[in-house]
Specification:
Layout (H helix, E strand, L loop, with lengths): L1 H9 L7 H11 L8 E2 L2 H7 L2 E6 L9 H11 L2 H4 L3 E4 L3 H13 L3 E6 L4 H9 L3 E5 L3 H15 L2 E2 L6 H17 L5 E5 L4 H13 L4 E7 L4 H8 L21 H9 L3 E5 L1 H15 L5 H12 L8 E6 L15
Helix pairs in contact: 2-4, 2-9, 4-6, 4-9, 6-7, 9-10, 10-12, 13-14
Length: about 325
């Protein structure tokens, strides 16, 4: 069992190929939803672009994270799967992994840092995960994950640096580009970079000319800083309401952003909250503030998108309705 864990850990943190993304699409097809693409004439007029919103907030578990988690779970051998899986997550990935593990009938251990959004923690518990709490630092997350691995033999499924997770996340772009032909650009939120890197690989395999953008909170703009400096910035302490984007960009994820020339735009929490309200109002969709960064980025720099047909990935909709960001305080 320990050998299986070691093997899975060592095979992580390698960028997936386009073939692996295609394999992921076939692997998750029995379990994941094909999410819709919505339009808004009002948001088109406001942005000066033709926006196509890929609604991953309507994915199982309320976020795109189910794609990567499901692919990782079903890519395990029978012997690896027998001991279950483990991850650390502030919310959506933990929920997704628990849901994915349930589809295979295996255990899911989720390390949750202090300060995580309670609605997301509750969702992880409802999905059947075994919860472990830790301090709100990356070091504490990783230490607790290692401890659970040693005790249980569970396989680590990293939130964004796992090859199979990245491949699964890339299936959203694969799906979107089949649903909408002729897109000029794609934009996703950027946190750890699993979605952004999977999207970049899938999109450029299908259309090398498509322009790729990312959106990141100003209070967690390590990807912007890293791309500017040509090396990963690892000392930033995130300070943002966008709880789903507080992770620092992973090493291989950063390599993917550089290789595929992903242009990341930083937006303030206030801009993201305003965009979140617009999405609720115009699309009639519940999306979380992390998802709204993409629309905030488009509205912040409209000249970059004007006249283009843009795919906009809305990554999640897990919101604490008792604590909406525009009613805080």
């Amino acid at each position: 069992m320990n050998a299986a864990v070691i093997k899975q850990t060592l095979s992580s943190d390698v960028l997936p190929s386009y073939a692996q993304i295609l394999d992921a699409a076939a692997r998750i097809a029995p379990h994941a939803r094909v999410t819709p693409v919505l339009r808004s004439a009002a948001l088109d007029a406001l942005s000066g672009a033709e926006l196509h919103f890929k609604c991953e907030n309507l994915q199982r578990g309320g976020a795109f994270k189910f794609r990567g988690a499901c692919n990782a779970v079903w890519a395990l051998t029978e012997s690896q799967a027998a001991a279950g899986v483990v991850t650390h997550s502030s919310g959506n990935h933990g929920n997704a992994l628990a849901l994915a593990a349930a589809t295979r009938g295996i255990a899911a251990h989720v390390i949750v840092p202090q300060g995580a959004v309670q609605a997301k923690v509750d969702a992880i518990a409802r999905a059947g995960a075994i919860l472990h709490r830790c301090a709100a630092t990356q070091a504490a997350r990783e230490a607790m994950s290692a401890e659970v691995q040693r005790a249980s033999g569970a396989v680590l499924v990293h939130p964004y640096a796992d090859t199979q997770v990245m491949a699964g996340q890339g299936t959203a772009a694969l799906e979107l580009l089949k649903q909408v032909a002729g897109l000029d650009a794609l934009i996703t939120p950027v946190g750890g970079g699993g979605m952004a890197s999977g999207t970049a690989i899938a999109a450029h395999a299908i259309d090398p000319s498509i322009t790729l953008f990312g959106a990141e909170p100003l209070g967690a703009d390590d990807a912007v800083r890293s791309l500017s400096q040509g090396r990963r910035v690892t000392t930033l302490v995130p300070d943002t309401l966008c709880d789903g984007l507080r992770a620092l960009i992973g090493e291989t994820n950063f390599d993917a952003l550089r290789t595929h020339h992903v242009d990341v735009i930083a937006v303030s929490d206030e801009e993201s909250i305003a965009a979140m309200q617009l999405l609720w109002s115009e699309l009639k969709l519940v999306v979380e503030v992390s998802s709204a960064t993409v629309l905030a980025a488009i509205l912040k720099q409209p000249a970059r998108f004007a006249g283009r047909r843009v795919g906009v990935v809305l990554t999640g909709g897990n919101v604490d309705l008792q604590s909406l960001p525009w009613s805080a305080g």
